[in-house]
């Protein structure tokens, strides 16, 4: 009989196993920007009031990644010491890095037009059909009809931007 313990005999604990990731300096730089952008996307819309809390889990992960900035030679992107709350925060240099700004601007531009077109399409759809008519449509028919409005508005804004958009005074 062997004295070696089997793996199944190992007691289960609530301790989470830590893992290491090996990154080059360039990969860390990309990770720094990705984490900043991801947290920006997740939390920029929240004002941290009791009704509108930030996603703290994302803040914590960002702080962990930021804590390695000095080690990788990117201390100019992260405040060198944690703040009173123990977290590391980005410096203005990271927030204003051209690639970061370009990504945010591209995202905002794309999101604006997509949302604008979709809102106009749903408005027109709901103005054209009453609730009873909409309820009679199959899901496929409803989606196809909405997409006709989306396509119409997408064509319009792709061709003319906001030039033909205005407020009509019906008085």
Comma- or semicolon-separated keywords:
single chain, 54% helix, mainly alpha, 171 residues
What does this structure look like?
It is a single chain. By secondary structure, the protein is an all-alpha fold. Helices cover 54% and strands 0% of the residues. It has six helices and no strands. It has helices at residues 25-43, 56-66, 92-95, 98-128, 131-136, 139-160. Helix 4 (98-128) crosses helix 6. The mean pLDDT is 90.
Strand/helix succession: HHHHHH
Q: Total number of helical segments?
A: 6
- Report the average pLDDT across residues: 90
- Computed Rg: 26 Å
Largest sheet: none
Q: How much of the polypeptide forms β-strand, as a percent range?
A: under 5%
Secondary-structure class: mainly alpha
Number of strands: 0
Shape: elongated
Low-confidence stretches: none
Distance between the termini: 96 Å
Fraction of residues in helix: 40-55%
Helix and strand topology:
Layout: H1 25-43, H2 56-66, H3 92-95, H4 98-128, H5 131-136, H6 139-160
Summarize the structure.
Helix content is 54%, strand content 0%.
């Amino acid at each position: 009989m062997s004295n070696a313990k089997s793996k199944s005999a190992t007691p289960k604990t609530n301790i989470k196993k830590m893992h290491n990731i090996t990154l080059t300096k360039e990969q860390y730089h990309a990770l720094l920007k990705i984490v900043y952008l991801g947290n920006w996307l997740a939390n920029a819309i929240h004002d941290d009031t009791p009704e509108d809390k930030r996603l703290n889990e994302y803040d914590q992960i960002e702080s962990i990644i930021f804590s390695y900035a000095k080690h990788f030679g990117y201390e100019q992107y992260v405040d060198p010491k944690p703040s009173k709350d123990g977290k590391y925060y980005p410096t203005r240099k990271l927030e204003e890095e051209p690639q970061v700004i370009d990504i945010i601007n591209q995202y905002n531009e794309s999101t604006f037009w997509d949302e604008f077109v979709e809102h106009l399409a749903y408005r027109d759809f709901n103005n054209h059909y009453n609730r009873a008519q909409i309820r009679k449509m199959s899901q496929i028919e409803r989606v196809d009809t909405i997409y006709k409005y989306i396509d119409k508005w997408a064509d319009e804004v792709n061709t003319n931007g906001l030039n033909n958009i205005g407020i009509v005074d019906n008085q």
